[in-house]
Design brief:
- The chain has helices at residues 18-31, 39-52, 55-90, and strands at residues 2-5, 11-14.
- The protein is mainly alpha-helical.
- It has a two-stranded antiparallel sheet with strand order 1-2.
- The longest helix has 36 residues, at 55-90.
- The chain is elongated.
Length: 92
């Protein structure tokens, strides 16, 4: 199994688990900086990851990212629709 190393030295297994990769970035960047991280901090870590990842793994993680973002978008749209319905139910 391939591994990458974050800028903090933390190693992450590349096993296709996108959420594990996102969690590692969050813990190693956001939490270690006590949530005082910047856009540049996160993007720098993502660039660090991209320099280490193979094209095959990149395709795998991109596919997972698109799926996760599609599900998130769908949930946001459904929540907005439910709020509209709930608001109309309160109207006389």
């Amino acid at each position: 199994m391939n591994k990458i190393k974050l800028s903090t030295g933390y190693e992450v297994n590349l096993d296709g688990d996108l959420l594990a990769l996102i969690e590692a970035i969050y813990e190693e960047i956001a939490l270690k900086k006590e949530l005082k991280h910047t856009y540049e901090d996160v993007m720098g870590e993502i660039e660090n990851i991209l320099r280490q990842i193979s094209v095959e793994d990149l395709r795998l993680y991109f596919r997972e990212s698109l799926f996760l973002n599609t599900v998130t978008y769908e949930n946001e749209m459904l929540n907005a629709y439910i709020k509209r319905l709930a608001g109309k139910a309160d109207e006389p």
